[in-house]
Amino acid sequence: MYKLKSITLDHKKNTAGTEAQKLPLPSKVLIPMSMHIGVPCEPTVKKGDHVFTGQKIGDSDAPLSVPIHASISGTVSDIKDYRLLNGKVCKAVEIESDGKEETAECTPPEITDKASFLKAVRESGVCGLGGAGFPTHVKLDFKKEIDTLVINAAECEPYITSDYRQMVEKPEDVLGGVKLVMKYTGIPKTVIAIETNKPDVIEDFLKLTSDIPEIEVLSLPSTYPQGAEKVLVYSATGRIVGEGEIPADKKVIVMNVSTVAFIYRYTQNGIPLISRRITVEGTAVKKPLNVFAPVGTQVSELLKFTGTDVNTVKKLVAGGPMMGSCLLSTDTPVVKTSNSFLADSEYTEPVTTACIRCGRCVRACAMELMPLRLEKAYRDKNKNELKRLKVGLCMNCGACTYVCPANRKLAETNQLAKLLIR
Ligand code: SF4
Ligand code: SF4
Fold it and tell me: I want to staple 23 with a disulfide (CB 3.0 to 4.6 A). Which of 275, 293, 380, 415 is the partner?
């Protein structure tokens, strides 16, 4: 099989050895009504209402949407506008804790067939927990023939270990979720794709699946961006997901490892997606670790839990260093797709210099793009050239920016270029 281009990064998985800890109950949470790709929810509660942990507080009739639940019990103290990372504004429900952690009546869903399974997945509020946030029930409601489920357990970004800890702490949830998806959607084969920098979990899953021929455990080279969807599909199946295509066009569904594990837990206890495992790392963080935090908790609470003085934070990133987004404030809430926060105590904006045409960005791109030429086409606002150079294939992996000796913002420019074409 052709070997895709990639780069090698220092993994810095410093939190891999620490079990995730539960964050103390926050005094309030702010829960945005848009934490998934698709139509934002409308609040189903009003100011002054008392809510229980796990109670639905937002929903939408739109097909591409998932409900949202209260992550703590208490009083709805405000419903206000909230600006998302993408600049859009949605409603957000603020809940002041009553300190009781009173839980709504959560019962495991009754699942008998594909329709009831998909309904349960929707009601759980789950969307892609790897960061994409695509509604999982929509992804699983495929109309085409699918022959392979690929579980994305690569976790190729440096620092992040939340998926790894899922596999170490609860591998049975992962396997349970895989079996449920296979059973109710009829997908005959699964590939659990794990990078070789996690040899212990590869060994564990090989043992756990030794008598299940339909489930293959695949060791992937620890290169970047191994976990990018198109790259992963190619590594796991040899199939190329082309421009404008999704994995289902190649008979493949890709699911994040923590997403399938959550689906299994929901079918066992009926508790919707109200908290998640998050890596907290960076040079400002006193004690890097993984925490279970309720959705809506301010990042500052997570930082304080790690013994960090929030005033020392000079740069805060949601996600990994390669694909994450900078946050303006430590008041930003945890959302369903938060898998990591990186807080650094030092930051100097890199100085951008002229392109020296070294070609490193071209050699780094797994999609065989030419970032330097894309950058010029964007500067010229030449939409035809951007299309000809296939900017639509850019995965925003950041590899080109990372290797550029001139510190050119190549991946960032491609995102703007895609918007320009749209
Ligand atoms: S890596 Fe940077 S300097 Fe080298 S060709 Fe690409 S844009 Fe130019
Ligand atoms: S960000 Fe886009 S152009 Fe740059 S290496 Fe990744 S896929 Fe290629």
Answer: 293
